[in-house]
Amino acid sequence: MLNILEKQVRCPTCKTIISCTGSPGEIVRITCPSCGFLGKITFPQTYNNPIKVVEIQHLTKTFGKFTAVQFIPLIIFPSILLAGLFWPIESIPSYLQPLSYIIPLRYGIDAERSIMLRGWGISEIWVDILVLVLFALLTLSASVLLLKRKN
Predict the structure, then answer these.
(1) Looking at residue 103, what DSSP letter applies?
(2) DSSP secondary structure, 108-130, as one string
(3) Which of 25, 93, 105, 127 is deepest in the core (most CB within 10 A)?
(4) Res 58: pLDDT
(5) Nearest to residue 23, comparing CAs of 50, 38, 3, 7?
């Protein structure tokens, strides 16, 4: 007869209660739905105290790849719509037009249109390229600082 044990554990990061089930001696990986905490618990081999969890081990505190995928529509779709890919930026409502200046995709689209439609060279689109390089340096610098602070 297979015994299934059930236990509720508290996430060490955000204190959310996580329910998990497993067999005696089984190692179960858990993921907190609130903060993305990943860990594992080991159910005891003995039947004396079947509810006791022997170990909660921290694997990593990060957003999982599935959590990151959920944020793609919130970033990519507005970027495409506000960057002028499908229609000119002038046809976007006037209160949204200033947002297009903080989207790097706008500068890439402007540069590509200038090359393909107007036949311009690098001497005419250097401002767009400079802005794209600055966005890349800003993003890289921010990621390096965040990684240093995390470690």
Answers:
(1) -
(2) HHHHHHHHHHH---HHHHHHHHH
(3) 105
(4) 46
(5) 3
Q: What's the mean per-residue pLDDT of the chain?
A: 79
pLDDT band with cut points at 50, 70 and 90 for residue 151: low
Q: How many domains does the chain have?
A: 2
- Give the range of the structural domain holding residue 97, as residue numbers without chain letter: 71-150
Domain boundary among 63, 88, 113: 63
Q: Which long-range contacts (CB under 8 A, 24 or more apart) does 108-116 make?
A: 108/132, 109/83, 109/84, 109/85, 110/84
Same domain, 78 and 113: yes
- Per the listing, tokens 């609130």 go with 34
Better pLDDT: 2 or 71? 71
